[in-house]
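agent> fetching stored inputs for the uracil docking request
agent> found them:
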Amino acid sequence: MQKVFVMDHPLIQHKLTFLRDISTGTKSFRELVSEIATLMCYEATRDLPLVNVQTETPMQITTTKVISGRKLAFVPILRAGLGMVDGMLNLVPSAKVGHIGLYRDHDTLKPIEYYNKLPPDIEEREVIVLDPMLATGGSAIDAIDIVKKSNPKNIKFLCIIAAPEGIEALHKKHPDIHIYCAAVDEKLNENGYIMPGLGDAGDRIFGTK
Ligand code: PRP
Ligand code: URA
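agent> prediction call returned; pasting tokens
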């Protein structure tokens, strides 16, 4: 059963305020997306399985824990998901990174796929799909469709702002996928933008508007 985890940690909420602010420029926006991704990664990896190992400290041999198995793959949805990758890799530098290229058609709001490259050993990994924005849910649904075909151990969806409409749509199509976000906003406007949101995440990260 799908769960929605809203990360209300004060550091995340504080940074999210500056991310939303219209006066935040490209450099700061990019840094904030990365910092928020690091903080969210900490919470989203809370349930990774651990195994015991024997470790020799300078004092004695003792039993300690490490994360078991082949671990993680991060899959950003291009373009805006790219802004979250470095922040995630700060905490899990050994993770593999796949890419899925999707853009929303401006008229239909339907996602168009233009790129897809996933790690070959994805079956042995837990996947976290990354995109700052869950709006209508179309992009997340298609990206998860693509990832599911490669049969990973588990998939989570990590975004910064989610619209209620996107959560509902993702839940309908992929009820097994947990959603991690920093905020659930009010609604979508008539152009499919999240209100109050932060505007166009890709444009603000890459300075294309
Ligand atoms: C944005 C965003 C998501 C998508 C969300 O990308 O980064 O991928 O819209 O909208 P949805 O939930 O309605 O599908 P966009 O299509 O603008 O592409 P870009 O990142 O390349 O600008
Ligand atoms: N994509 C964005 O970047 N922002 C929105 O508000 C909706 C979709």
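agent> quick read of the result: The pocket of PRP (ligand 1) is lined by residues 77-80, 102-104, 109, 111, 131-140, 166, 192, 200-202 (CB under 6 Å).
agent> awaiting further instructions
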